[in-house]
Amino acid sequence: MKASPAHKPSNVFLDGISSMNFELRGYFRSPDTVFFTFLFPILLLAIFGVAFGSVGEIGALPDGTGGVTMAEYYVPGMVAAGLLLGGVQNLAVDIAREKSEGWLRRLGGTPLSPVSYFIGKAGMVLVTSIAQVALLFAFAALALGVDLPTDPDLWLRFAWIFVLGIITMTLLGIALSAVPRSSRSATAVVLPIVLLLQFVSGVYLQFSMLPEWLQNVAGIFPLKWLAQGMRAVFLPEHFAAAEQSGAWDLGLVALNLGIWLVVGLVASLVTFRWQRRS
């Protein structure tokens, strides 16, 4: 995936920025994409926050302090789900469609470098994910009364988990786009994977509610670690006791996300083609 001789590094980057602007315009002009990858986590947070609002606070210490509302409990899961939807689901379906419809084959006949193409896709995921998270936080704080962290160290923790997570999900989305055989099958292939991972990774259900064998299976995949890392940002420290090991294990969060980042990168380099497989 090296740039062609006619493309200097600066030109590759500028072409990538132009590609990102094109991708962003296309993204926000597609209502179904915006709903299912941009607004869906916010909608789910609203539903969970309202539906379980009568439960009151959960996870309080024996002295009655340290509890959180259900809306607060679901915030980290929705952040993790947003990165999964924006990176894996959106890119896997989008690239598979572009490949099946011949759009990538036409791009392959232009001076556009694959690196510039990927910069455009990754930049689109980054911008939309930042906007989505900002909107999610604003909605959670203003509409649901969620108390966001005030400790700068927690926001620094959030920053590196967010960046590592978004790179990992972007690369995995590019890699997964090679699996569907056509644009028609893309959604049918990708959505069950994405939905299943959310249910077993502590996004919709408390991870401690799952049987141990299912927790072990979920631990193979990156979403479980991304959701756990986000819980380490937004939930009180004593909630770590509910994790499988009884701790946040941020080192393991970084390690597992890093492993999947490398897997996604290698798979993307090996499988990406400008045209659909026959």
List keywords for this structure.
278 residues; elongated; single chain; 10 helices; mainly alpha; disordered N terminus
Q: What does this protein look like?
A:
The protein is mostly helical. It has one domain (9-271). 69% of the residues lie in helices and 0% in strands. The chain is built from ten helices and no strands. α2 (31-51) packs antiparallel against α3 (70-100). The longest helix is centred in the N-terminal third of the chain and has 31 residues, at 70-100. The two termini are 21 Å apart. Residues 32-278 form the ABC transmembrane type-2 domain. It is a multi-pass membrane protein. Keywords: Antibiotic resistance, Cell membrane, Membrane, Transmembrane, Transmembrane helix, Transport. It is found in: Cell membrane; Membrane.
